[in-house]
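In the design runs reported in the main text, the only information available to the sequence generator was the tokenized backbone. The following block is the verbatim input for one such run; it is reproduced so that readers can re-run the procedure and compare outputs position by position.
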């Protein structure tokens, strides 16, 4: 599947430090280097209503990680999927009378344009579920052969969560059984399906139903893939295990990332990821933002209203990626004002040495992607303009380039 165009990224004359980040599985900070060649997999959208602010916050956060890694001189492999066949997509297509393929294509293209506008570096591999179905079929057949999966009478195939893997099931989320059952029911699971050996067993292959799209499944019969196995297969094929980081929103901790890890480890005997990073949830005006409530803030709508995408990105970066936060109009106004101040400074004489600003900026970002502190560093630089002295032109340009390379904000744009 086609990705999106890459923004121009300045190359800085020195290297930054390797970052640390909070890992859900470790329940604390870890240094994430990937031996200089980190492998990142971030779960993509289900393309039936893109791109809301929660999506944008997640992809800007991991774009920041990619930028910090690149600044440290690392050779990054970044993979992202798009779940272009799933129940929510089919339900939205049915509700709107639009062919599911046309709906997916439309929303994926909208997502691409939003990511380009936000200056998000594209993944090296942007892979759809549909194009991965032959690989999923082979993986599910392998799990069945290993005794890690079984079929119901209707042909649906399920993963056995009691399969022995190392690290064991639950090591990523650290939830107890009651918590797992609650989240599994709330987040796409089917604990009450008759015939399952364990209520937490996860769907690997959904056998063909009348009126639903399906694909040949070799020994599995016609059908379509489950959600978790799709990501496990794509991550393994295009990034390789163990991933340095598995990333996504905090609502994916369980069951999605836990199941992905279990599927992949049962298939390969290799741990799925060294670290799991999760972004906070974004609400609107004090309420949870969700598609069911219809209170989504869409990047495309803001752009259509004339909002500068750089201001949207700054509004996101003003919050630590792990925090839950709320979007509102004052937040956007504050971000636009900050952008104006920075751009004015970029065109003025700011008597600050680049080395000091860059060191502080890198230190903030290396500390669990502390973007609020990083923005504070540039605020101080911008506030120092206009006192009558002049920095070297090279210092001024290096700071402008650092803001672009590390924060994704082009201060010289019109």
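Verbatim output:
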């Amino acid at each position: 599947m086609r990705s999106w165009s890459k923004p121009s990224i300045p190359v800085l004359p020195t290297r930054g430090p390797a970052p640390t980040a909070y890992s859900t599985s470790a329940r604390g900070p870890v240094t994430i280097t990937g031996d200089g060649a980190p492998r990142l997999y971030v779960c993509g959208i289900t393309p039936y209503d893109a791109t809301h602010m929660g999506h944008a916050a997640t992809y800007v956060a991991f774009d920041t990680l990619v930028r910090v890694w690149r600044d440290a001189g690392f050779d990054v492999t970044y993979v992202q999927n798009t779940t272009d066949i799933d129940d929510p997509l089919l339900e939205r297509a049915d509700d709107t009378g639009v062919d599911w393929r046309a709906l997916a294509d439309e929303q994926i293209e909208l997502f691409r344009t939003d990511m380009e506008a936000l200056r998000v570096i594209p993944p090296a591999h942007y892979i759809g579920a549909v194009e991965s179905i032959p690989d999923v079929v082979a993986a599910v057949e392998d799990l069945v052969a290993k005794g890690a999966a079984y079929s119901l009478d209707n042909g649906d195939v399920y993963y056995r969560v009691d399969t022995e893997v190392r690290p064991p099931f639950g090591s990523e989320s650290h939830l107890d059984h009651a918590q797992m059952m609650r989240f599994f029911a709330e987040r796409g699971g089917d604990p009450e399906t008759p015939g399952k050996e364990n209520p937490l067993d996860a769907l690997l292959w959904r056998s063909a139903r009348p009126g639903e799209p399906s694909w040949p499944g070799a020994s599995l019969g016609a059908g379509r893939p489950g959600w978790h196995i799709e990501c496990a297969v794509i991550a393994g094929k295009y990034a390789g295990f163990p991933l340095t980081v598995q990333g996504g929103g905090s609502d994916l901790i369980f069951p999605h990332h836990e199941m992905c890890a279990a599927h992949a480890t049962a298939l390969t005997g290799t741990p799925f990821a060294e670290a799991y990073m999760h972004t906070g949830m974004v609400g609107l005006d004090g309420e949870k933002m969700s598609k069911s409530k219809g209170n989504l803030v869409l990047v495309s709508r803001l752009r259509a209203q004339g909002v500068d995408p750089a201001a949207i990105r700054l509004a996101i970066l003003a919050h630590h990626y792990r925090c839950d936060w709320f979007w509102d109009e004052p937040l956007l106004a504050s971000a636009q004002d900050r952008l104006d101040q920075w751009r004015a400074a970029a065109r003025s004489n700011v008597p600050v040495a680049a080395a000091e600003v860059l060191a502080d900026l890198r230190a903030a970002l290396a500390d669990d992607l502390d973007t609020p502190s990083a923005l504070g560093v540039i605020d101080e630089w911008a506030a120092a303009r206009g006192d009558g002295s002049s920095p070297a032109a090279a210092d001024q340009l290096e700071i402008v380039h650092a803001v672009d390379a590390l924060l994704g904000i082009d201060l010289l744009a019109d």
